[in-house]
């Protein structure tokens, strides 16, 4: 079985991994980082979104071996060491941008990428930027509010 080494949430990780193992399987099953959710297995819903070298990716659509030598950040890795929530997590909480919570980890990770790398100057731009992340519960309005609030905090 091939071995991969990568950094996950700031920690060096080396594990034996079957060639067909997806990144989401590796994170959830091998590293027990279950905050990254599996929704559709076809990169349609966004529940599995993580950051790979600082960019949002859908981890169900990548093999774990494609992350070798790279840095992965999951929802478990964005809060401060003292437990203080990331500004995006805090905004989702403040603005009631979640209901059942299934989409929330992927939505938060996508929203962080949106604020850091793309235009989020209007509700329309935020909605466009979050396209590809599906939520069955919220109707998206409070998610949009949360992203706008966090964008100000992340400045």
TrEMBL record:
The record's annotation in Pfam families points to: Fer2 (PF00111), Fer2_2 (PF01799)
- GO function terms (MF aspect): 2 iron, 2 sulfur cluster binding; metal ion binding; oxidoreductase activity
Q: Where in the numbering of this chain does the 2Fe-2S ferredoxin-type domain appear? A: 2-78
Tell me which EC number(s) this protein carries: 1.2.99.2
In which domain of life is the source organism classified?
A: Bacteria
The kind of enzyme this is, by top-level EC class, is oxidoreductase
> Which coenzymes or cofactors are required?
[2Fe-2S] cluster
> What is the name listed in the Swiss-Prot or TrEMBL entry for this protein?
Carbon monoxide dehydrogenase, small subunit CoxS
Q: Which organism is it from?
A: Rubrivivax gelatinosus (strain NBRC 100245 / IL144)
Its gene name is: coxS
């Amino acid at each position: 079985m091939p071995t991969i080494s990568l950094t996950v949430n700031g920690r060096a990780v080396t594990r034996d991994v079957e060639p067909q193992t997806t990144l989401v399987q590796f994170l959830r099953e091998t590293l027990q980082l279950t905050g990254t959710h599996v929704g559709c297995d076809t990169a349609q819903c966004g529940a599995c979104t993580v950051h790979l070298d600082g960019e949002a990716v859908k981890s169900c659509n990548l093999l774990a071996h494609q992350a070798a030598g790279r840095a992965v950040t999951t929802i478990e890795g964005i809060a401060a060491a003292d437990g203080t929530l990331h500004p995006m997590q805090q905004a989702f909480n403040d603005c009631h941008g979640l209901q059942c919570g299934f989409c929330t980890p992927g939505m938060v990770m996508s929203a962080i990428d949106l604020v850091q790398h793309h235009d989020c100057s209007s509700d329309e731009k935020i909605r466009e930027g979050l396209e590809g992340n599906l939520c069955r519960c919220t109707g998206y309005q409070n998610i949009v509010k949360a992203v706008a609030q966090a964008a100000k905090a992340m400045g």
